[in-house]
Specification:
heterodimer, A: about 850 residues, alpha+beta, Penicillin amidase (Acylase) alpha subunit, N-terminal domain, six-stranded antiparallel beta sheet, about 35% helix, globular, B: about 130 residues, mainly alpha, 5 helices, elongated
Chain lengths: ~850, ~130
Amino acid sequence: MTLDPAIGAPAKSDHPKAPDIPVSTRRAPRRGRPLPVINALLALLVSAAVLYASFAGVGPLPALGPAFNPATGAWTMAADAAPVQSQTLTIPGLQQPVRVMFEKDGTAHVVAQTDADLFLAVGYVHARFRLFQMDLMRRQGEGLLSQVVGKAALDSDRFELQLGLLRTAQMEWSQADEITKIALTAYAKGVNDRIDEAKKTHQLDAMFTLLGYQPQPWTPIDTLIVKGDMTQTLNFTDTPLVMELLDKSLGPDLTAAWFPVLPPNPQSPYDPGPYAIQATPAPITVESSVTDSQAATALALYNRLANLPPGLIATGGDSNNWAVAGAKSTSGGALMAGDPHLHLTLPSIWFQLTEDSPDYHTSGVSIPGTPVVLIGHNQHISWSLTDAQNQQTFFYEEHEDSAHPGQYFWKGAWHNYTSVSYDIPVLNGPTDHLTVKLSTHGPVISERGLTTSVWWAGNIPSQDFSVLMRIGQASDFQGFREALRDWHSPTHNFVYADDAGNIGMISAGYYPLVAQGQPWLPMPGTGEYDVTGTVPYDDIPQVYDPPDNIVLSANQRQVGPTYPYYIGTASNFFDPGYRANEIERVLSQPGKLSAADMMALQTDTRDFLASEIVPILVQALAGDQLTTSEQQARDLLASWDFRMETGSAAASIWSTFWDAYLSQTFDPWWKAKKVTVDRHELDGALGQDLEAWTLAGTTPCQPPDGCQAPCPAGMPCPPKPAQPISSVLAQAFHTAFSTLSTKLGGDPGSWTWGKLHTRELENLAQVSGLNYGPRPDRGDANTPLAAGDSPSTHGPSWRMVVDWGTKTFSGIYPGGQSENPASTWYENKVDAWWSGLYAPMLSADEASFAPGVATWSMQP
Amino acid sequence: MKRWTWFFITLIGVAISLAGLLLGAWWLTFVAGLVLGAFIGRGRVAIPAGALAGLVAWGVGLAVLQVHFGLGPTASSLAAIMGFTNQDAIPLVLTCLVGLLLGLTGAWLASATRNLAFTSIDHAQTGER
């Protein structure tokens, strides 16, 4: 027989030599036993299990082998997190050498000798620090999230492909002008240079490894998709659906009274008129009531949109910007401040940089995935944006007939829907097939009940990058204004200041005009109610060097009541206006203003609404029976400066009181009328009504008991029982007091705002362990330092202050330049931002002399 | 087979495994285990040797990263991504475990297969006789 050298051979060791025993004798006990077979089978099974887990992952765990390989897996984020060092890089596609300097905090300065090289280098730098974020954003817009995260993202993907960001991006690219094509092509080349390099060196972001995929090459379409994402999150609204549901439940009269076109409360339009075209907007006319099928359709679509991931539907803006003319500034030069309020994420939506080339000298913040500075300054002008909030989304109920399948009736004839088909790859699942129908109004987004299509301005090609590049080259207001002529969507309030002391504001974009009907509701799609055009550019809201030397926007309605065009209703399209009122109050005070004043105002926590209502409340409580503790709470309010500071107990009392006042006033109506829209979603609009009634001393009405009898139409309806407003206010105060006592104990002095109100910066990939906070924080939804909800996840995503008199530029955003959570640049700017501090925005020349600068020398 | 031979073969296994890690072919750790199991044969030696080779290779990979860049923030981040916030050791342990299991199962499978094969031959030859 053959001797098994490993098993059967006598061990040649230091042990005493065993007596020579015939192998057959030693093996005898194993003969006929299944042990080796079982052993081999077990080994096979366990090996298969380990290999399966290593190759494919188990449960929530990724494929363990590639994910945890120390040399090429997720651990490489350690190397990626290392501080950036000065080095020479070879970047294919460059025409000339490019220099990229990084300040200690990660701010990048790109200096190129050609414009194309500039955008190529910016693409490389963005991808170096934000590739996963960029990939997520393009996947969201292109309906490709399911491919990497599975069916959980399928609703989002289907909706995005229905809405049509991809189709719009493709159209925009086909219509792009030469400078846009050069910029976007060069940018994509830079991104792809980095993708290739990262693949070769195994330096792709760890999230790619953990999710088990590699990024595809970047294209100019992807950049346009990222722009589309932003357009969607800023101005695709479900407001007409909400209005229809309100109309159905509350009735048209009450809906018109509570959710009017013009704001019921005092506001601060920056362009109050007079207007070139003298006309007044048509009042709301009550047409036929909303039918059951219309309401059911609206509800189904409303619920569908409500269940989409956050960010796909615009939920109201929260941004500030303003400018002060040189005549009113201490430096003698114009001042400008801007703080766009967005979802605060880690990594941030922003990447800070300067761009220098023969034709561009801009500094500010860019969105990773796009090649230009969106908010910032050049050598002569500065600009910042807030959302203009006008209505850009219109829903149409298509008229269909079973005798005409696949057709809709429009302008007296039957028309075929066109259709586009998509395959949506789904991780660990079958590919989803989607066919999108398109009517003349736009994509059909619901066929549950009435077929509903949507006309959305974001689906009209808008050459925003061309505009931004021309803004970057502008040196005066005329150039700035001419560039914005081609900006269509999303509509933004562009504030302006220049080195000659001038200021201005233009709310650039499309303001769709509807032939007739009630555009704040879904409209019939038969042609009579179509969008027929847009407000002429010369008539859109705008001012230049206003006589009071200030201009401001905070998402409020930009124009006064005599503006001749319909641009949206007061509720849910425009902001209630408290931030704008507060900013105007501060800027309008006598005396001159400095950059420090701008910074103080950006971080101010004075609640304008509280300043109006609290004195009335305190007066109402004067005649009320109060306990000692309640008196203490009232005294706190009476001596309050209306600032929502973390240490303020009065702030907690005010906020809880206002919630109770809203609830006390409107919840009975919601219950009686079976309103299907969440009341809290409408608190801004209802708060405007409540504010107006309270200031006028009008008692808010109560619904008849159970609404057994028909409710009186419209406002005011008789209260049951009739109460003076002081009693209503006192009742809400008692409710608030009780709520706070239960929640925070019996001592009103200890009810500090920080115990109720926190802020949190959320990780973009929704990894809660990588969030920042929640931490107690200042402000509320009405304060210039916006911080609605708790934990507040929206707020000032970038703060910039410009003083053209001293040529000083300051800015900061909550986050860091790197998306790598192990990097010191992941959240290194958060603490300073939280404390209200600013960093100087250095030019490339200044940065080259700054301490600790690392420089990349990019060679062709 | 002398102990130094086993040690030498184990070192070869570590080298194969390390090379695989550097090339992105992490599964070479399993192959290294197979090699060890095939050459050493004796399960009670081959299996620990395979496990050791995997553990050492993956551990060395981590150690190199620790020396050059520090692993603290990365371990913390990976733990958070995996849902184990503030339990930074978990990704480290998991990584070492993956290396260990790949080496161990490779060696075990080879050793058991070899054992089975020789037993079968043994049976066959015994039957012939």
